[in-house]
Amino acid sequence: MATAGFVRELKRMVGNDNVTVETQDLVCYSYDATQMEYLPDAVVFPATADEVSRILRLANREKVAVFPRGAGSGFSGGSLPKGGGVVLVTTRMNRIVKIDTDNLIAVVEPGVVTGDLQDAVEKVGLFYPPDPASLRFSTIGGNVAECAGGPRAVKYGVTKDFVLGLEVVLPTGDIITTGGETYKGVVGYDLTKLLCGSEGTLGIITRIVLRLLPLPETRTTMLAVFDSIDGAAGAVAAIIRGRIIPTTLEFLDHSALRCVEGEFSLGIPSTARAVLLIELDGEKELVEKQAARIGDLIRPLGLVEFKAAADAAEAEELWKARRLVSPALRKVNPDKINEDIAVPRSRVPDIIRRIDQISEKYGIPIINFGHAGDGNIHVNIMIDRSKPGASEKAEEAVREIFRATLDLGGTMSGEHGVGLSKAPYIPMELSGEQIAAMKAIKRALDPNNILNPGKIFPV
Length: 459
Description:
By secondary structure, this protein is α+β, with helices and mostly antiparallel strands. The chain has helices at 4-14, 23-28, 49-62, 114-122, 140-146, 153-156, 191-195, 229-241, 254-264, 284-298, 312-318, 320-323, 325-329, 348-362, 390-407, 426-429, 432-445, and strands at residues 19-20, 42-44, 66-69, 86-89, 96-100, 105-108, 126-127, 163-169, 175-179, 204-211, 213-214, 218-226, 248-253, 274-282, 303-308, 335-342, 366-371, 376-383. The protein has 4 domains: 4-89, Uridine Diphospho-n-acetylenolpyruvylglucosamine Reductase, domain 2; 96-214, 2-Layer Sandwich (Uridine Diphospho-n-acetylenolpyruvylglucosamine Reductase, domain 3); 218-324, Alpha-Beta Plaits (2-Layer Sandwich), CATH 3.30.70.3450; 332-417, Alpha-Beta Plaits. A hairpin with a 4-residue loop joins strand 17 and strand 18. The model has no long low-confidence stretch (mean pLDDT 96).
């Protein structure tokens, strides 16, 4: 617990205006995109790595838990201060330090908003591909901590594939750098990759070196409607086999289509059982050739309708069904449990069928959409928590969904992380030996368990 003396020390380190213990302020940092909520004892807003270091040294001495937080947009409770302690918010550390057009890198602080970085690098003809749905408000630091993905991952990879180096404050307060500004480097262990996706349990990131790419010349968007989920999955396989790697391959299954059409009446054909949103980018001539080839490849696979956007306005219109899924969900039931399982691409129809069976078994609406190109499915279990037994039924449904996912060679989380919400299920996917090895790393770097305690590992 953060005592009054502890809070006075924090104020001395970062200034009175950058520490708060007011209840109305604490509430703002007690929740994320989950429906969980835990009130911290205090919130602190450091501006430099040195301030973060001093905060962690104090926390170690006083045995006070510290919970790193960016924009609080996570879906797994990874930044929530369960058990009390101090929330350390990185939003004041929000500088784009440099964009190097010669070496194709950017150096940024963790509080930079992802979409703002993308806008900045595109102004100089460069490209930062990772695009989580929250990119207009989530921060780069949080993206690295969670190893965020997004629709473009099928072609470009996830956040860790673009992180070259880090400045990190370890739980003990020591400041280290990992990696650097070179594209190669094999001296010692790869601590950069270890820290990417560690969910703020091993260190607080204070600076990030990111790899950039040249901005693609053009982009085109297509919408394909199928009469079965198997047809859509077959289309994904046919496109990849055809040596075309789209920028995005997004899908909505029959449950998501019913949800959107029922709420917004977009004119989706009644025979539709699955929709693919396909985007290509690159040189104009190649993109045009690939778009025509995709039409030929998928036509025999139960294609009901196929549209290609002529311009950016039409592309936005084609994306409308995908963007309107989340707003439509609340009409199904007031409460949502959002899981992000991933299976091999070829097993997407199998897992959708298993989820349908689970939905019918428990009488719970389950809406599915996501990234068909990499098998990452966002499974939305829609319940009304005010009804007796609803939460318990949903918990059983989640467990069965995870079991089905693992049976098909998948994973319980493709991009949201473990945090608090998935921690109870971790032994379903990881062996005791794997968990022990990870805990050993945690103990070595955080001997007093003060940094984001209670996350990832089951208690």
